[in-house]
């Protein structure tokens, strides 16, 4: 297959995927308020008031009975959001276009990473399977850093593989340093990419370790310089992550290990016979590991370190945590399938190869059909607004903005979202004893005891008197009067 034809097919895959991706975007957001912190950080960049954001968010984190997040996320995603926020405000549909663009970057990066190990046809097929996967496409509907990090981390792995070889020029080393910095600025665990870089350089230059060190200086210097510049500009809030490790227990560690080992199966949720795909891919990935462990050592190092980090992290976040590992699973499984086909008797190889292509094409068509159905339904629903961006929620924000003093402290299950929409300090609590620290408590009537005192139990909290001042079909707001 000629290179121009390959690139044309890749472009077609990316265009179709981007069309599906855009069509699956809603105008809402689930009731997780990580998005609110990212948006407030983007607003702080635009206002030049980074410390003001840190001050208010520290209040929410420090006073909550359960920390909803770090004092500040890495500043990369807010930096990407800032120009869009400046031009379009909190227009969720426009802001999510950033994810669509980065998903396209991811697909291109994955294809070229796959080409370091496979021929054009299987590389394009694996790319198409990822491009049409409903679980990955749905991820773009979240205003969080997952998809940009998936793109930049995959690009970094591609550049690491390229830079490890002695033939690549200085531009590749410079691009690698910038890409590594971008990954670290998007997510703290981007630092793990330094390990596969070290492994790759060592493997390609062993036993000449001095040559490996010389090869490391350009990306290392670029990364260090950009890190120093960002540390001078942006305050660090990620150290508050360390407090979460206090919640880790041995039983939780064991549960996390089992959870994350099976989690990749969620990639195929909604597909026919969904439970079969992951075990099959895992078997072929293991076959590849046995035969190509040395060649793939850098990629395996990154996968293993990432899994170890997620397993030791007390809070489970589902499939979104392992998005960067899913394409590696596909790549390793693709290599394993190639190895398995080579071991089929010569008389059966043609039939085995065609059967595999037919099965892969069927899976691709099913994935495309499901994604297209989701996209069509979303468009028929006029990109439904849900969660914190719907009109019922805006009624709550309007009441708080206009009917409560600016210095009021509002207790709410999603304190960062409330701060974003009302400019009121807020914290969450599940403890009656914390209620006197607030002026008002806002309850989501349908969330029971999820990060709040249950609406049907709060009246029994001792030492306070609650006066209802607002109510709609989803929220109630009470003014808190401590009893004498």
Q: In terms of per-residue confidence, which ranges show pLDDT below 50 for 5 or more consecutive residues?
A: none
Q: Total number of β-strand segments?
A: 5
What average pLDDT do the residues reach?
92
With strands numbered from the N-terminus, the spatial order across the biggest sheet is 2-1-3-5-4
Report the end-to-end length measured between terminal Cα atoms.
82 Å
Helix content: 55-70%
- What structural category characterises the helix and strand content? mainly alpha
Number of helices: 18
Short account of what is shown:
By secondary structure, this protein is mostly helical. Helices cover 61% and strands 6% of the residues. The chain folds into two domains: 3-380, no CATH class; 388-482.
Structural features, described:
The structure is a single chain. With 484 residues, the chain is mainly α. It has 2 domains: 3-380, no CATH class; 388-482. Helix content is 61%, strand content 6%. It has a 5-stranded mixed beta sheet with strand order 2-1-3-5-4. Strand 1, helix 18 and strand 2 form a beta-alpha-beta unit. Helix 1 (3-23) packs parallel to helix 16 and helix 5 runs parallel beside helix 8 (146-164). It is globular, with a radius of gyration of 25 Å. The termini are far apart. 38% of the residues are buried. The model has no long low-confidence stretch (mean pLDDT 92).
């Amino acid at each position: 297959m000629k290179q121009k034809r390959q690139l044309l097919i890749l472009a077609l895959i990316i265009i179709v995927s981007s069309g599906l991706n855009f069509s699956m975007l809603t105008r809402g957001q689930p009731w997780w308020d990580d998005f609110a912190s990212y948006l407030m950080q983007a607003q702080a960049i635009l206002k030049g008031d980074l410390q003001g954001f840190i001050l208010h968010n520290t209040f929410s984190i420090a006073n909550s009975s359960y920390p909803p997040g770090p004092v500040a996320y890495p500043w990369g995603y807010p930096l990407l959001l800032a120009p869009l926020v400046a031009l379009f405000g909190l227009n969720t549909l426009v802001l999510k276009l950033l994810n669509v663009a980065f998903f396209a970057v991811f697909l291109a990066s994955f294809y070229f990473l796959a080409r370091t190990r496979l021929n054009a046809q299987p590389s394009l097929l694996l790319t198409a399977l990822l491009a049409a996967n409903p679980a990955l496409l749905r991820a773009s509907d979240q205003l969080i850093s997952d998809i940009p990090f998936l793109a930049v981390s995959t690009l970094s792995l591609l550049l690491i593989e390229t830079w490890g070889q002695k033939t690549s020029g200085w531009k590749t080393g410079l691009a690698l340093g910038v890409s590594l910095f971008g990954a670290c600025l998007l997510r703290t665990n981007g630092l793990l990419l330094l390990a596969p870089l070290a492994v790759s350089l060592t493997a390609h230059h062993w036993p000449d370790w001095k040559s490996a060190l010389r090869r490391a200086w350009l990306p290392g210097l670029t990364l260090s310089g950009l890190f120093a510049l960002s540390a001078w500009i942006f305050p660090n809030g990620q150290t508050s992550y360390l407090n979460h490790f206090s919640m880790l227990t041995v039983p939780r560690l064991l549960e996390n290990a089992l959870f994350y080992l099976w989690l990749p199966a969620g990639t195929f949720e909604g597909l026919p016979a969904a439970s079969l795909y992951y075990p099959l891919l895992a078997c072929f990935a293991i076959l590849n590991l046995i035969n190509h462990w040395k060649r793939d050592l850098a990629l395996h190092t990154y996968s293993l370190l990432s899994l170890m980090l997620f397993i030791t992290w007390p809070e489970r976040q589902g499939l979104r945590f392992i998005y960067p590992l899913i394409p590696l699973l596909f790549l390793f499984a693709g290599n394993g399938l190639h190895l398995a086909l080579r071991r089929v008797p010569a008389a059966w190889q043609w039939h085995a190869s065609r059967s595999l292509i037919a099965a892969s094409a069927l899976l691709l068509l099913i994935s495309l059909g499901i994604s297209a159905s989701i996209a069509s339904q979303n468009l028929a629903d006029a990109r439904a607004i849900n969660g914190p961006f719907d009109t019922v929620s805006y009624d709550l924000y309007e009441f708080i903005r206009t009917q409560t003093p600016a210095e009021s402290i509002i207790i709410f299950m999603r304190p960062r979202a409330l701060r974003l929409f009302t400019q009121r300090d807020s914290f969450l609590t599940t403890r009656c004893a914390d209620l006197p620290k607030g002026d008002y408590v806002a309850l989501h009537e349908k969330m029971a005891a999820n990060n709040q005192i249950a609406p049907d139990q709060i009246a029994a909290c001792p030492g306070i008197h609650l006066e209802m001042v607002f109510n709609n079909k989803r929220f109630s707001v009470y003014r808190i009067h401590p009893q004498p």
